[in-house]
Write a structure and sequence with these properties.
The chain is α+β, with helices and mostly antiparallel strands. The protein is built from two helices and eight strands. It has two domains: about 60 residues, 2,3-Dihydroxybiphenyl 1,2-Dioxygenase, domain 1 (Roll); about 50 residues, Roll (2,3-Dihydroxybiphenyl 1,2-Dioxygenase, domain 1), CATH 3.10.180.10. Strand 6 and strand 7 form a beta hairpin.
Length: about 130
Amino acid sequence: MTTTTQVSPRANVINWFEIPVTNIEKAIAMYEAMLDTKLALSDFEGVPHAVMDNGDHSSTSGALISDPNRPPGRGASTVIYLNAKDGVGRCLSRAVEAGARVVRPLTEIGPHGTIALIEDLDGNVIGLHANAH
């Protein structure tokens, strides 16, 4: 008798990143030239996104974003989204209990799951993300 063990794909600690830009067209041109790839321009909740994705979800993806509520700033602008493996709501509650401030509350993002943004004790904005089930 042969048994087969299925190995589940390893979850990345970082699920998503966002790089704020002021001029998305110029930023797309620069990043496409730098990475020798094409970025997919889309709109998410009214915010233009230029998505960097390998297509098969085998690695972390992210986007250039042009969000007037989160403009780029020298030295403190990129947002990473950490994997909220037991749910964004639970992670968000624990973060607040530990002293974090909520920047964006638990938000459904359609087929992509849920997110939230917190400000950590040093002022860094960190995203929490869980995939839809």
